[in-house]
Design goal:
By secondary structure, the protein is an all-alpha fold. The chain is built from three helices and no strands.
Length: 81
């Protein structure tokens, strides 16, 4: 692999990571709306489930980055595309 291809791969990884964080940010902004209302048990359960999924996404992303495999396929795998 040449340096040019490596640079392109790094840039693609950075772009995918940036997109992931933008989507998580938008998701959490929508979630903020739910937390402003007086929570009922069902809503509290839903908010908890959403936060668990966000943490799962961050864990998967961290693992992929450490293994050097961040890509659009990761975004598809965690269903953000």
């Amino acid at each position: 692999m040449n340096y040019s291809q490596t640079a392109k791969d790094v840039r693609a990884d950075q772009d995918a990571l940036f997109e992931l964080f933008e989507r998580i940010e938008a998701f959490l902004r929508r979630l903020d709306t739910y937390t402003e209302a007086t929570p009922i048990q069902g809503m509290a359960d839903t908010i908890s489930a959403i936060m668990v999924e966000v943490l799962n996404i961050l864990a998967i992303t961290t693992k992929e980055i450490k293994q050097g495999r961040m890509s659009k396929s990761l975004l598809k795998r965690i269903k953000l595309c």
